Amino acid sequence: MCAARAGIDVGEYSPTLVKKAVVGTGGAEKSQVHAMVSRLLPGVTIAGPDAADALAVAITHAHHLATARRIA
After folding, report:
1. 60 and 22 Cβ atoms separated by less than 8 Å
2. pTM
3. Separation of alpha carbons 20 and 42, rounded Å
């Protein structure tokens, strides 16, 4: 709510959509998500599975935001 009031774009993505965006399949395992985030962000130290999940959501949001801007 605070982000929306501040005019910040807010996105909500299902786990299946995040997995599909990052790994290519919605049924990917956490280890696969972690591995792909590592490949997409070389040189970044990922501090555990929760950090990998958060980065995967951020990558998904960036992809969807870029697509939405192209369409508009």
Report:
1. yes
2. 0.81
3. 20
